[in-house]
């Protein structure tokens, strides 16, 4: 997976009613780039969700990176996108 582009993702926050970890897609991508992880492409997904504080935010940020940066990205809280997820083409 080292040189192969892969998609990773992170939620804007763990759940609603808390301060988001990322206020925008640009903010999330900046964290990767500041940690020397080049971003090839990016995308923002918005899902309909409930409005209770225990509900997820419904905002997911995705980034395409080279596979050899996956370990560094997961240390920052990002995770690889499963094949069944809505990954942009």
Q: Which labels suit this protein?
A:
89 residues, alpha+beta, 4-stranded antiparallel beta sheet, 2 helices, elongated
Walk me through the topology:
Elements: E1 5-11, H1 25-34, E2 41-46, E3 59-66, H2 70-75, E4 79-80
Antiparallel strand pairs: 1-3, 1-4, 2-3
User: What value does the Rg take, in angstroms?
Assistant: 13 Å
The profile of the biggest β sheet is:
4 strands, antiparallel
What value does the average pLDDT take?
Answer: 89
Strand content: 25-35%
Query: Order of strands side by side in the largest beta sheet?
Result: 2-3-1-4
| Low-confidence runs of at least 5 consecutive residues | none
Count of helical stretches: 2
* Sheet/helix structural class: alpha+beta
Q: Could you spell the SSE succession in H and E letters? A: EHEEHE
Q: Assign a percent range to the helix content.
A: 10-25%
What separation lies between the terminal Cα atoms? 18 Å
- Total count of strands: 4
Question: Globular, elongated, flat, extended or rod-shaped: what is the shape?
Answer: elongated
Report on this model:
This protein is an alpha+beta fold and 89 residues long. It has 2 helices and 4 strands. It has helices spanning 25-34, 70-75, and strands spanning 5-11, 41-46, 59-66, 79-80. It starts with a strand and ends in a 9-residue tail after the last strand.
Question: In brief, what are we looking at here?
Answer:
The chain has 89 residues and is of the alpha+beta class. Helix content is 18%, strand content 26%.
């Amino acid at each position: 997976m080292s040189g192969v582009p892969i998609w990773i993702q992170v939620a804007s926050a763990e759940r609603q009613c808390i301060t988001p970890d990322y206020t925008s897609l640009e903010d999330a991508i900046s964290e990767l780039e500041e940690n020397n992880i080049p971003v090839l492409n990016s995308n923002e997904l918005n899902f309909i969700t409930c409005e209770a504080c225990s509900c997820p935010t419904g905002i997911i940020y995705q980034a395409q990176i080279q596979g050899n940066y996956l370990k560094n990205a997961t240390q920052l809280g990002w995770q690889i996108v499963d094949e069944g997820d809505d990954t942009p083409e």
